[in-house]
Amino acid sequence: MRKIRVLAAKPGLDGHDRGIKVIAAALRDAGMEVIYTGLRQTPEQIVTAALEEDVDVIALSVLSGAHDYLFPRVMDLVREKNMEDVLVIGGGIIPDEDIPGLLDCGIAAVFGPGTSTSKIVEYIQEKVK
Fold first, then answer.
1. What residue stretches are annotated with the B12-binding domain (predicted)?
2. Fewer beta carbons below 10 Å: N end or C end of the chain?
3. Structural domains of the chain in order of their starting residue, each with its CATH number
4. How far apart are CA 112 and CA 94, in angstroms?
């Protein structure tokens, strides 16, 4: 059985990556293959890497407040590249009132501060068959 492949990405100018590294480690511990793109990636770089790496999941983390621009831009590119079968999830410091708009643009789920890593692992395992 093929491992679930996850691209973990930090779009934008946000320089804080401790959270995404903790998530990446938890996903690896759960048996997933994780590719971490590093800091300050453009939406274009993220989607290109996801396509090249043939991932099942794109996990975005934004703490800078630019999620309202970056997440929809990633989703636009995902649709342009006909990658609608890729699960895109987001996390970071995202106000509750912004979450419905992110879900409407195609982000499958948004995980805020304090979400247990096991909840994220279970969500991905449930959604990616």
1. 3-129
2. N
3. 5-127 (3.40.50.280)
4. 7
